[in-house]
Amino acid sequence: MKKQYLKKISLFLFLAMLTNLAFAQTGSISGQVIDETNEPVIGASILLSGTTIATSTDENGNYTLSGVPAGNQTLIIRYIGYLNQEQQILVSGNTTLNIQLEVDDLLLDEVVVVGYGTQKKSDLTGSIASVSSDDFQQGAITTPEQLISGKIAGVAITSNNGAPGSGSTIRIRGGASLNASNDPLIVIDGVPVSNSSISGAANPLNLINPNDIENFTVLKDASATAIYGSRASNGVILITTKKGKSGATKINFSSQFSIATPYKQADVLSADQFREYVNTYGNDTYKSLLGTANTDWQKEIYQNAPSTDNNISISGSLKNYLPYRISVGYLNQDGILKTGNLDRMTAAVNLSPTLLNNHLKVNINVKGTYSKNKFANLDAIGAAVSFDPTKPVYSGNDNYGGYYEILDPDPTSSTGIKQLAPRNPLSLLKQKDDRSTVQRSIGNIQLDYSLPFLTDLHANLNLGYDISKGEGTIVIPESAASSYRRFQDDNQNFFSGVNNQYKQTQQNQLLEFYLNYGKDLDFWNSRLDVVGGYAYQAFSTTNYNYGDYSFDGQLRPGSTPLYEFDKPENRLVSFYGRANYTINDRYLLTATVRTDGSSRFSKENRWATFPSAALAWKIIDEPFMTDSKVISDLKLRIGYGITGQQEGIGNYDYISYYNLSTESAQYQFGDDFYNMYRPGGYYYNRKWEQTATSNIGLDYGFLNNRITGSLDLYYKKTSDLLNEIGQSAGTNFSNKIVANVGSMENKGIEFGLNAQAIQRDNFNWDIGFNMTYNKNEITRLTIEDNPTSPGNKYAGISGGTGQTVQIFSVNYPRSTFYVYQQVYGEDGLPLDGIFVDRNKDGVVNENDLYHYQNSDPKLYFGLSSNVNYKKWTAGFSLRASYDNYIYNNVFSNTGIERNILNPLVYLNNGSTDVLNSHISGNINGDRALLSDYYIQNGSFIRMDNINIGYNFGKILKNAGDLNIGFNIQNAFVITDYKGVDPELGNGIDNNLYPRPRTYVLGLNLSF
Amino acid sequence: MNLSLIKTMIAAALITTVASCTDKLDLLPTNDVTANIVYSTPEGYKQALAKVYGAYALTGNTGPAGNKDIQGSIDEGNFTDFLRTYWYAQELSTDEAVLGWSDPGLPDFHNMNWSPTNSALTGLYYRSLFQITLANDFLRQSTDAKISEHGITGSDADVIKSYRSEVRFLRAFQYWVLMDLYGTPAFVTEDDVLGADLPQQIQRADLFLYVESELKAIETELLDPRSNEYGRADKAAAWALLARLYLNSEVYTGTERYSDAITYSKKVIDAGYSLSNDYRNLFLADNHKNKNEFILTINYDGVRSQSFGGTSFITHAAVGGSMPAQSFGISGGWGGIRTTENLPKLFPDYSGTADKRAQFYQDGQNIEIKDISSFTDGFGVTKFRNVTQAGVAGSSLDYSDIDFPLFRLPEMYLIYAEATLRGGAGGDKATAITYINKMRERAYMNTSGNVNDISLDFILDERARELYWEGFRRTDLIRYKKFVENSYLWPWKGGSKNGQEVESYRTLFPIPSDDLTANPNLKQNAGYN
Prior knowledge:
The structure holds 2 protein chains of 2 kinds.
Chain A: H1 2-18, E1 26-34, E2 45-48, E3 54-56, E4 62-69, E5 71-78, E6 85-91, E7 94-96, E8 99-100, E9 111-114, E10 117-120, E11 128-132, E12 155-159, E13 168-172, E14 185-188, E15 191-193, E16 213-219, H2 222-225, E17 236-241, E18 250-261, H3 271-281, H4 284-287, H5 297-301, E19 305-318, E20 322-334, E21 341-351, E22 354-355, E23 360-374, H6 379-386, H7 425-430, E24 433-451, E25 454-476, E26 487-488, E27 494-495, E28 498-520, E29 526-544, E30 565-566, E31 569-583, E32 587-598, E33 607-618, E34 631-645, E35 658-660, E36 666-669, E37 672-675, E38 677-679, E39 689-702, E40 707-719, E41 722-726, E42 736-740, E43 743-759, E44 763-780, E45 792-796, E46 804-808, E47 816-819, E48 822-824, E49 830-835, E50 850-854, E51 859-869, E52 872-882, E53 885-888, H8 889-894, H9 897-900, E54 901-902, E55 906-907, H10 913-917, H11 925-928, E56 935-937, E57 940-956, E58 959-975, E59 988-989, E60 997-1006
Parallel strand pairs in A: 1-7, 1-8, 14-17, 53-59
Antiparallel strand pairs in A: 1-4, 2-3, 2-5, 5-6, 9-10, 11-16, 12-13, 14-15, 16-17, 18-19, 18-60, 19-20, 20-21, 21-23, 22-23, 23-24, 24-25, 25-28, 26-27, 28-29, 29-30, 29-31, 31-32, 32-33, 33-34, 34-39, 35-38, 36-37, 39-40, 40-43, 41-42, 43-44, 44-51, 45-46, 46-47, 47-50, 48-49, 51-52, 52-57, 53-56, ...
Chain B: H1 2-24, H2 35-38, H3 42-54, H4 76-79, H5 82-92, E1 98-99, H6 106-111, H7 119-141, H8 144-149, H9 154-181, E2 186-187, E3 200-201, H10 204-219, H11 235-247, H12 249-253, H13 258-269, E4 294-298, H14 310-317, E5 337-338, E6 360-361, E7 380-381, E8 404-408, H15 409-421, H16 429-444, H17 456-467, H18 473-479, H19 513-518
Helix pairs in contact in B: 3-7, 3-9, 5-7, 7-9, 9-10, 10-11, 11-13, 11-15, 13-15, 15-16, 15-17
């Protein structure tokens, strides 16, 4: 109907113009471009076909092309997100042509933000996935990355724990590194942000309000990421925040109230089980230590935690000239671990005016956060597992703040408290006040200027900053057992408690300039788009140093800092370019190159170049496909590129610097003490870690694109691995250096599918599914092969100082466990302290450790479903992980007799596993800790979210669209894993802050 | 205006570009400095010297931990401190000590089934070579040319030159440690350009010659005995190490050098040292008062030299059961190390009534070890206590003030006696007995413990009585051929309750896997492949 209307207008205009024909040899065309809602379109490009005569629309959508030869002409109108239009027009004198653009409503043609520009989704040649706000995870989400958890194949987002505002481990295609970083580069509105943590913030990303985010685009393969060069190996996440739109002022208010409840806790002995255990296995000494109380310590430390999240945003356009969006958010979230709280205020302003006769587009973003944190003492989690359940919470006397503590029977003990025994879990929480204030602001101004003399040439300048300040205090009262009488002065006076502060600031700057030129070429119906640019980014952190003080302000001797602050810095200088070449709108070629220079490397190794190339073939547009009724989209993508990685290494250590030791690390000659100068380890030849990625992908659509998706196969090979290798003793000041030695592979398959299962007027059902298979293997670790060396052990665990449970070994995945093989009795139970002598040399020692399973899942899945029925919506979103193995450190450390009947003569509670395994920890205890018995399968299905919502429609006269929704987050987990939670970033289960189940009631009102 | 804006943009970008490329990428750390600055002043030299010494006292540049010298996954406090790992290797492998913890590889010492990836052995090897590497660096930075390059002249320059011989002593000491424990380590000197080539492996007998030649070369350059600052090496330290070296020469080289052992132990004995009055004051928080007896100490301080190794380790780890924390000057014990029955049984009584050196804690402790992991099996040892002679706790209850004597006079008496009994020339048995009785008179605080005759077996026992828990036992048992053999057993030797012999190759520890991987020039010691 709309089209007919348009045709009528066109016809009318055409006739109108005809009348003018006879009077001019050259003329002009002017008119207005409007969108589907009849709003003017700003910045649409207007080109007279076959000429260089072009312009773009102004803030009112108006344009004028002058100097147009009279006669029949073709006008080409382009605007991102809309179908290109070609209009035939007979020009004579001042001709008017108004144009209404049609939305490019094929899902495939949504516009996707890519590095340094945007592209139509159908024109992408790389492996790029995009998730917009409509498809975000719902519920009480406080940190941005959780919005896309489980939504994209190849992207694994694991929340670190259940603490308020806690961050996540993000792995795109498994990550590309060993010792350097595996975190992707995150770019917010064109500003690459630092991944480094900020003092006092649980997670630097949570300083961005998720409600301000419009879209996530994840660049996965090298052809997409290589434009980010040296920081692209682990993938790139582009976050675009919401912007103002022209049109009527819109006000959106959303409010959420949620209650987080403890979902699952460690399975430990009850007080009665504990008494029975001690009475059965303990001697009289231990029996005499039993109490009469029945305390569930985990119940004591956890709580139901309410939180509220309120956001209001106003967007619109001032006099159709200055589109703006302003938002303010306030979040207050309690943790389920008592005393924890996150209180966050955020504000964001976006201005996107177009100036200078439409030639200059300005985009200004300023985001600010003021966050106050109160961190609950995480030590309480382990203490609640271990603290004797037969003891009461309060002692009944005033010692140690009234909390029951395990006392030392030794009357001469300075503190009266049993050393190394756990402290009262509730006292750990209530008697530690750990607060921080963190401020962060990220902003940029982006100027996009289309040159008047060459409108297809755009110059783009982007100036950005990311500054933050985190400071905090830790106060522990004098009565607290945890730091009772913790030091003494020269006169043997004791001091207790803590009264300390910390502070850090970060200042990162960005300058980027690029030129963008696009031109339709005269041959092969082809088009060329070229981007070339320069970037400079500086990262600077200032860490302030403070002494260590007792509660009443006494400086602990030896804790005076040598320097007021330290200010590590690093910088990157880059040149980059991209060319997209399209033939016949069917064959798409992309080539990118980036050259980066880093201050972290010596002059000789400072610069490196990262190229990529990709090819896409829109098979669906071939003549032989036009008759297909089933297949509605088909595109093949092939890409290859090399990317780099320089995170996770020192800023300066390509040469040796001397470090002066602290006041507490001096050496005494005679009666004098000397601070010591130590030369530092260095590695002059260090350079970028390089990852070569090959990707082949297929984008498909069936049944008029009711089913769409992609399938990608990739192979990533990282060489010159930034790998901590042993230095030959005597050849460096450090025995281990992060050097460029070794290589590693990731191979994988990603599959994504979106289906509109039901599509009716009042009833829609959308399903999204994705699946990822990733296989990691280390292929080289050392310069010289040494078959007798198993590799590099890592991943410290609790239970023995210096024990590690994982290893980097050639021919094995990165996260492989390295353990002893348990011997089992005929009853199927482990034989205490008996392990297989795998090398059959007659002794069981470290040479008998073996590689067993690994902590990365072999497969992981995401599934989401959304149903709309009339005014109702309902949906869920779940994730699954298959064959991720876990080292159950809670079992191994606490579920043993040695823990419960502690040799230091006190009682600890422990995992109920002790009743099954009967592992004592006393026989070959150092090996029992590393028994493969504790490596357990952690496959799981987690229902991240179940939601239901109702749209009340206009609640006021023609205004106030009201939605109310209810969510359950983390509704359930299906798993055979016996510990608290099988989802662990590193595969080691050691007193994780449990993820709560959260009930969320939310409303959204828009005017 | 449009044009000028774009010009400005381009110009701004270009200016930044040019500026950036040239110098923006050259950054320096805020507080750390280069060698040129460190070695530009006499004070800088002394602070660098402090690190060469401090390398065997501390685990890093932040006390007690956090900025470690030895990198990697091995735990800083547990496995990278010199004395702590040396003590594990020398004491836990013998009858003098057992340890109940589940830390990786520690039970292997007493079970005598350690492997090339043992954390403590790896940490000790790298610690020794770290101190050697620092020594080499110091020697490169303190040549005459370098000193004058920095404009340091006159007496300042002379002082720095005198540091060089001390640094060579420290290097010789660590090479002796490596020779004694590992036999065939990687070998580097100041003549090797740092990082240029992979070091060669040195054979044990060659290393013996090197250590000997170094000590002899500096013997004359070092300050006279007892004239240097406390905690710094002098001539007597070099002589004492030579005496120890020669005593064990047969083990190291196959050739005995007992006459030289007598010569050098005598040099020390005649250098003016004397025994302190009370043995029980030797390992207390204020044991620096025993300068008359101590030849060279590793210095610790509870406030200014903190680590989880050294005497902090020995003091804390030895306290458990019902042992009262206060009398050890600590806030609480770590419940780890005790002794097997063999050690207390060398004394006339367990409680030190006669021989005051018998410092054992028996209350609630069983002399018999049924379960190594149980602290109350095996007597506690109360030799190291972080309290002063006056009974006042040290400066910190968490870190010890006790200095650790690497060399003290009685060892020289014992070397003299043993070398004499083993047929060395230059000594006589009567003098030897006099020396032994000096020690025993101090131990008994009267002459009731004096002996009229001595034998080699007596000397071994006397060494245990005098020097237990000071890091000598493994070397002594090997020299007496009682370490791996069936001829001498102790509880849980070789992992068997009554003790059993173990493979003879275990008289040497394996070269750590890490260095074999990093340096293909190295070959593993026999038996460990």
